[in-house]
Amino acid sequence: MAQFDGKTYDCPFDCFLAVLKGKWRTDLLLALADHPSHFRELQRTLTGISAKVLTENLRGLERNHLVERQEQDDPAGMVEYRLSSEGEQLIQVMEQINHWVGRWLA
């Protein structure tokens, strides 16, 4: 059994799909795979995402240990988001699936 967002899944692959479910989740993970980013930078990168939706997605990914939130030591109180080690492992799986789909659909 696997758990994500407070739900239990009998099939680990169903849990994997739940991790990626949502309009912005994969784009957000891929943006953070490029480099750690501040909130405003993510909002510029993900054209069309509202601050509320970005916040909800970041909090969910952080709660599930895929993203880490780090407060910067500066007067502006900037926050940087980065993939956790679990998030980096997920990106590797996503890249393998992307490669497989590319070969399968070619």
TrEMBL record:
Keyword field: DNA-binding, Transcription, Transcription regulation
The organism's place on the tree of life at top rank: Bacteria
GO molecular function: DNA binding
Gene3D superfamilies: Winged helix-like DNA-binding domain superfamily/Winged helix DNA-binding domain (1.10.10.10)
Signal peptide extent: none
Domain HTH hxlR-type: 11-106
Cited PANTHER family: TRANSCRIPTIONAL REGULATOR, MARR FAMILY (PTHR33204)
Protein known as: Helix-turn-helix transcriptional regulator
